Amino acid sequence: MSTEPTSGYAPPPEPSGFAPASRSGPRHRAAGDDPASESALRIVWLCPDLLSTYGDRGNMLILARRAYVRGIPVETIEVRSDEPVPQEGDIYLLGGGEDGPQALAAQRLNANQGLHRAVARGATALVVCAGYQLIGTSFFAKGAKCAGLGILDITSDRGATRAVGELASEADPALNLPTLTGFENHGGRTHLGPGLTPLARVTTGVGNDGATEGVWHGKIIGTYMHGPVLARNPALADLLISWAIGSPVAPIDDTWPNRLRAERLAAIRG
Questions:
Q1: Residue 269's pLDDT band (boundaries 50, 70, 90)?
Q2: Are 268 and 168 in contact (CB under 8 A)?
Q3: Which of 152, 173, 196, 220 has the smallest set of CB atoms within 10 Å of its CB?
Q4: Among candidates 201, 180, 195, 186, which has minimal Cα distance to 264?
């Protein structure tokens, strides 16, 4: 692990009972830099130049922090759309974006096939909004039907109205997650093919279609929730980390994340 100061990341306070991964905090590098320790949890944020709407970069920061305070060595890697997708990642992230950048991201990721290979070997992935749509077989951008990555049997089309506002849902019981909360802003409606499981059942908002929200398949989570979603749902962040490292994670102090959750859920119910 490097001991150089990280870029754009201030090391969090060291909680009692956990040894820090390094005094400088999570290591951050670009795709072409030399890799850090082989033991590090590698979090790969794809296409930040195209898909970086509504603070979705925060998902990378939340995962890095929650790993770091548990003493898990962690490395974050940002990979532009014109760069090859590294194959050593443990968790891959895609965020939201507008129609044009979404279509370009799909073209470049399809040409590269790096995300396809990573998922095929069992990597964990969180894909949000535009990123969620483009892992399917097709989506619409600027009125045209576009080819998705075909990683999951999902199609997305346009809804009669735009879905904007708070989104709350009850996760599939098998995931053992509390109520999910986020912010949605999208014009799409997403349809899951046979054999795919929705992430959750909608209680407020639209999500996929007004009834279901997102998808859960293997170690892939797709969702329309911004916020960023992992800041508002720390248990979901911990689930992704546990999938990536192959074991449950120890509890940490979630006083402030829980206050945020309570505030947003109270606003929905009120």
A1: confident
A2: yes
A3: 173
A4: 180
Return the structure tokens found at 230: 């992992």
Q: How far apart are CA 195 and CA 46, in angstroms?
A: 27
Q: What pLDDT, in 10s, does the model give residues 100-121?
A: 999 999 999 999 999 999 999 9
Residue 2, both tokens: 């490097």
Instruction: Report pLDDT for 31.
Output: 67
Query: Is 129 tagged catalytic?
Result: yes
pLDDT of residue 36: 54
Amino acid at 156: S
Q: Which domains are present in the chain?
A: 27-269 (3.40.50.880)
Catalytic residue among 47, 129, 146, 217: 129
Q: Which of 189, 190, 168, 187 is nearest to 179 (CA)?
A: 168
> What is the number of alpha carbons within 13 Å of residue 120 lying toward its C-beta?
9
pLDDT at 242 over 60: yes
Residue 209 vs residues 26, 58, 83, 224, 239: alpha-carbon distances, Å: 38, 26, 34, 11, 25
Q: How far is CA 251 from CA 76, 98, 248, in A?
A: 22, 37, 9
Q: Are 53 and 22 in contact (CB under 8 A)?
A: no
Identify the CA nearest to 22 among candidates 37, 3, 40.
3
Q: Which member of 28, 186, 217, 226 is catalytic?
A: 226
What is the rounded distance in angstroms from the CA atom of residue 77 to the CA atom of residue 88?
Answer: 10
Token readout for 215 is 């998808």
Q: Is 191 a catalytic residue?
A: no
